[in-house]
Target: DUF2268 domain-containing putative Zn-dependent protease
Amino acid sequence: MTITVLDTYPAIREILQAPASERPELLRAMLQPAAGMYKYFPGEVDLVAMHGMGSGFPLDRDGERCLEALEALHDAKAWTRIQGALEEGVSAQLAATPGITVPDITVLLVLGDPGDEHFMGPALGMAANGSVTGYLYLNVWPYPENLARLEATAVHELNHNLRYAPGGVVWNPATVTVGEQVVSEGLADAFARQLYGDELGYSRLAVAHLHDDEVYRKVLSGLEVTGMQNFTAWVHGDEFAARYGATPVGLPAGAGYVAGNRLVDAYLAATGKTAAEALHVPSREVIDVAGQRA
Model:
């Protein structure tokens, strides 16, 4: 098992300082080692277009602001810290579940887009994905809160990667429910909290409404919803749904993270398991046990 955190710092710096006409191809070359994260997409994927759609740093504006932010990431030793956190996370997970398969993992860290109001506002300057086996994607704007959470964010995404790796939980697009994603977010946060404590381990999206019972009950009412096009509203909230063309359901940002943390905490309390030990527990079991405890 090898963890490769791509050293994107010099590449991003070169892109931001290059003539505008050269930037797309330089970006494409930087992204190519992580192209496998789109392996389930139909047809050929335009990596540069996907970068833009994912709120990655712009190629045609905000150059100086992005260079300053890039240096903030570099000064924070972001790449080294993420590498160390993932190695620590894998060790902790294997100690709890020694029989699992840990794939080789490629990590792409990019700088976000300061001109994207949704990314900088409701998304809190962070977009990450660990759902595709063997790849982690972290898009960060160096808000102080995000820099402080780099390790926790990395192991959160690692938890997703290992949950859905071969031999683990199968994500079937035809049958998967909101409940599975909600529980997976709660498990990933619980794993981050196991390693880094509550102050840093909670996803920032979870914090504002963590103790809001109305939000919690509303999400519980949607746990059986299927159709992945519906998940954004239930998990990330209405502002995210509106951004991506989904139908709002009356939930604030991070609602699914709130419910996931509360469900998982109830399950762990009832069973005495650690988050690492619960890596492959079916979401149905978590929901049922947590429901009995509530």
Remarks:
- The first helix runs from residue 9 to 17.
- DSSP finds 15 helices and four strands in the chain.
- Residues 171-294 form one domain.
